[in-house]
Amino acid sequence: MDTEKYTGILRENGIKVTPQRLEVLRFLDKNRIHPTADDIYRALKKDNPSLSKTTVYNVLDILSKYGLVEVLTISGTESRYDYKSTRHQHFLCTSCGRIVDIHIKGLCMDCMPEKGHKVEEVHGYFKGTCRDCLKGVGG
Amino acid sequence: MDTEKYTGILRENGIKVTPQRLEVLRFLDKNRIHPTADDIYRALKKDNPSLSKTTVYNVLDILSKYGLVEVLTISGTESRYDYKSTRHQHFLCTSCGRIVDIHIKGLCMDCMPEKGHKVEEVHGYFKGTCRDCLKGVGG
DNA sequence: ACCTTATCTGTAATGATTACAATGTAGTAT
DNA sequence: ATACTACATTGTAATCATTACAGATAAGGT
Ligand SMILES: [Mn+2]
Ligand SMILES: [Mn+2]
Ligand SMILES: [Zn+2]
Ligand SMILES: [Zn+2]
């Protein structure tokens, strides 16, 4: 199921294809909820009981190194991971812990006024209380 | 030296004044280099050998809770602290580890298009290689 | 099948942060 | 001034995400 898609992505980037890499990449593509490494580990361990958490970290490292996955440091206590797609920003609800996508303009690689630095990543992080939590509905 | 300034700031915010709180606040005001908790601890311990690292964390907690200090999670591995002044963004050099201030427009509390969320913090994080490191001068 | 090399796994170590209990301090009431 | 109270500070132990490491495994080329 969908294996060709992720196999192709890895091959195009010169990353050796392994079942673990396929699974992590697929999981992030199908679950755009900015999971932690442990979330990914626990989810994938169901179908692959021999999976090691170290492998999850190793896979996330290589995927982010090749730009296929984005690492979010918004929470400060743990990294959250995002399938790299179109550029967007993030809002962390400090009440329920969810991270939601935000689309704003004017925040990009080229918008940095200070000259001479080589910019490789741009993150817009918003924090506060999400709509659901304000209504008392949130998790 | 300058004690009145920081005493006043703490009092205005209803924060009880203690020598440790004054020292941390003063250090952050005088050292706009986005230090870690450990940086602050080691610097202040010189003049106050009985200082505890737990106290540094406690002080930073309360100062950030009252909005006098900003917590930066840009590095992902450790928090960096910034005396809260005028709004600005940050650039982390992944080579030398320094964080430099960046001033861009169009990133503010009210620029978030999604409605209904209560925004309390906005961070613009850039990452890359700083000018000095590109020149081979960086630390 | 064999060899080489990279990956995966499990466990131990690291390091920043937090929890906790004992001690110290400042202000207030007696 | 002394006793009381509440809070701050300190030192140590615990936590938790992440990394280091060494042995087992698997893939690709001969
Ligand atoms: Mn996202
Ligand atoms: Mn700054
Ligand atoms: Zn929420
Ligand atoms: Zn640099």
Description:
The structure is a homodimer of 139-residue chains. Chain A has 5 helices and 5 strands. In chain A, β1 and β2 (80-83) form a beta hairpin. Chain A has 2 domains: 3-83, Arc Repressor Mutant, subunit A (Orthogonal Bundle), CATH 1.10.10.10; 89-134, 2-Layer Sandwich (Dna Ligase, domain 1). In chain A, α1 crosses α2, α2 crosses α4 (53-65) and α3 crosses α4 (53-65). In chain A, strands 4-3-5 form a 3-stranded mixed beta sheet. The first copy, chain A, has helices at residues 3-12, 19-30, 37-45, 53-65, 131-134; strands spanning 69-72, 80-83, 89-93, 99-102, 118-129. With 139 residues, the first copy, chain A, is an alpha+beta fold. The longest helix of chain A has 13 residues, at 53-65. Chain A binds chain B through residues 71, 73-76, 79, 91, 93-94, 100, 102-107, 111-131, 134, and chain B through 71, 73-76, 79, 91, 93-94, 100, 102-107, 111-131, 134. β5 (118-129) of chain A pairs antiparallel with β5 of chain B, so a sheet runs across the interface. Bound molecules: manganese (II) ion (2 copies) and zinc ion (ZN) (2 copies). The structure holds a DNA duplex (30 and 30 nucleotides).
